[in-house]
Amino acid sequence: MAEATQAPAQDGDEPSRRRGGLAAAVTAARETRGALASVFRNPNLRRVQLALGGSMIGDWAYSTAVAVWAYGVGGATAVGVWAAIRLTLLALTSPLGAAMADRYPRRAVMITADVVRAALVALATVCLFLDLHPAFVFVLATVTSIVSTAFRPAQRALMPALANRPEELTASNGTASTLESLSFFLGPALGALLLVVADVETVFLVNMATFLVSTLLLMRVQVPRAATTPPAPSADDSPADAPKESFLAEISAGFRTIGRDRDLLIVTAEVAAQTVVAGASAVFTIVMAVEILGTGPEGVGYLESVLGVGAIVGGFTAIARASRRKLAQDMTYGVMLWSLPLLLVTVWPHPVAAFAALLLLGFGNPLVDVNMETIIQRIAPDAVLGRVFGALEACLISTMALGAALMPVLVHWLGLRAALAGVGLGVAALALVGLPTMRSLDRRLRRPAGLDLLEAVPMFAPLTAGVLESLANSLTRVSIAAGDVVLNEGADSDRFYVIESGLVEVTQNGAVLRRQVPGDFFGEIGLLRDVPRTATVTAVEDTELVALERNDFLAAVTGQTEARMAADDIVTRRLTV
C-alpha cells in the first residue's frame, strides 16, 4: 500500500521539477530583459554604454593591428617586450590616471581621454604612412594605453550619478561587462578582417573614429549638477591655514581608502586572487592546447572562444541577479568559478574537460567584475571613487602579471595538472575564507530602512543614490505618543524629521498653521537659516518619525546646488504662509 501511494507522487515530481526549472529560466530571462531595458531607457546610461562599447571594439581591433605590426617588425620578441613594458607602465600610471577622475568633472575626463587618444592614434597612422622608425609607433601606442587609465575609472565613478536606483546600477555594470565580452570577439575579428582587406593604417583610422564617436556620445550625456565632481579647490579658494595635500598623498588616496575599509580590502584581495588565475590562463591555455587538445599553440583560439561564450552568458546572468541583492556572495561564487573548474582538468585531462573548464571560467568572470564594480561604487566615498578604481586596477594588473610569470614555473616544476590543482585550490580557499565577510557585506548593501521616505522629500530629489543611502543609514527612529511635543518654538534647531506614520500639528504663537501626515517633513527652516525653531510641532496621535542630525542634513543639502535651491524654495513658501 505504501509503495502504491508513493509511486504517483514520484512520477509527478519530475514534471513539477521541469516546470519549476522552466519557470525559473523564464523569470531569469524576464529579469534580464527588464534590467537591460531599464539601462537603455535611461538616455545617459545608454550613451555611456554605447560610447564604451564602441571604443572597446576599436581598442581590440587596434591592439590586434599593433601586435601584427610589431610581429612583422621584430617577431615574437618585439611583441613580448612591448607587452611587458606596456603592462608595467599601466600598473604604475593607473593611480595617476584615476586621480584625474576625482580631481576634475568625470564626463570631461572621459571626453578628454577620447580626444587625446584619437590624436595619438592619428599620429601613429602618420608615422606608418611616412615609414618612420618603429620606435615612434611603439611609444605612441604605449602612451595611448596610458591615457586610457583615466577613462575607465572616470566612467565607473560616473555611473552612480546616472543610475536611478541600485539595481539599475548593477544592470548597467552588467551591460558594460557584456559589451566588454562582445568586444573581445568583435574587435579582434574586425581588426583581422581589415588587415586582410586593407592594412594596419586602416585599422588605426577605424580606432580613431571610434574615439571620436565616443566623444560625440559623451558630449550628449547630461550629468546632474548635484553629482558633478568639482575641481579640487585652488589656493585662492582654500583657507590660508588649510593643509595642502601632497601629490603623493593625492594619488595614493585610493590605496589608503581600500586599506582602511575591511570590506573593500577583502573585495580587492578576492578579485586580485582571480586575476592571478587570469594571468596564469595566458600560459595554461596554450599548454592545454598543446598537451590536451593536441592542436598545437593555434588551438588556444578555440579555448578563448569558449571562454568568451561563457563570459557572455555570465554577463546576462549577473544582470538577471541584480535584484537579488547578493552582490558580494555572487562575486565570491565568481571567484570560485575561476578556480575550482581547473580541478576538472587535473582529474580528467581530456578536451571535453578543458572546454568545460574554460566555459565555467568565462561564466564566472562577469560575476566577479559586475558585482565588484557595483560594490565599490556603493561603499567607496564618492570623493575618492575614481582613485579607488585606479588603485584596484594597479593591483589587478600586478597580480595578473604575477600569475603569468608564476604559471610557467609551476608547469615546469610540477606539470600542468598539478600546477592547475595548486592554483585552483589556493584561490578557492581564499574565496571560502572571505565568504562570511561577503555575507556580512551583503547586509551592509541592503536597501536601508527609511530610504523610501527620503526619496519622496523634494529637496533630496537631486541627490545621488549613494548619498541618499548614506543618509538613510544615519537615520534615527523617534516614537512620539499622542499629545507629546516633538519640538518647541524657540528651541535650538538640531534635527530634521520625516513622518513615517501618525499625525502632527504645527502651531506658531498658538495659531495652527497646518497638520502633517506620513511622508511630510519638518524642521528644515531652523537648520537651513541657522535660527531657533520657528514653530511648535505636537503629535495628534501616536506617531513614528525618522530623524536626521543637523550635520548630516546640512552636509547633504547645502553641499549640492540643486538640493539647496529646492530647500530654499520650500523654506520660502512655508515662511510666507
General description of the model:
With 577 residues, the protein is α+β, with helices and mostly antiparallel strands. It folds into three domains: 28-170 and 181-222, MFS general substrate transporter like domains (Growth Hormone, Chain: A), CATH 1.20.1250; 253-446, MFS general substrate transporter like domains (Growth Hormone, Chain: A, Up-down Bundle); 451-575, Jelly Rolls. Helix content is 73%, strand content 7%. The strands form two sheets. Strands 1-8-3-6 form a four-stranded antiparallel sheet. A four-stranded antiparallel sheet has the order 2-7-4-5, with no helix packed on it. A hairpin with a 2-residue loop joins strand 4 (504-508) and strand 5. Helix 14 (385-414) packs antiparallel against helix 15 (416-445). The N and C termini lie far apart (81 Å). Mean pLDDT is 82; it is low at 1-12, 14-25 and 226-242.
Q: Note the overall shape.
A: elongated
CATH names the topology of the largest domain as Growth Hormone, Chain: A
Q: Rg from C-alpha positions?
A: 28 Å
Q: Major beta sheet, specifics?
A: 4 strands, antiparallel
Helix/strand structural class: alpha+beta
> What's the helix-strand series?
HHHHHHHHHHHHHHHHHEEEEEEHEEHH
Kindly state the percentage of residues in helix: over 70%
CATH C-level category of the largest domain: Mainly Alpha
Indicate the CATH architecture of the largest domain.
Answer: Up-down Bundle
Q: What number of structural domains do the residues give?
A: 3
Output mean pLDDT.
82
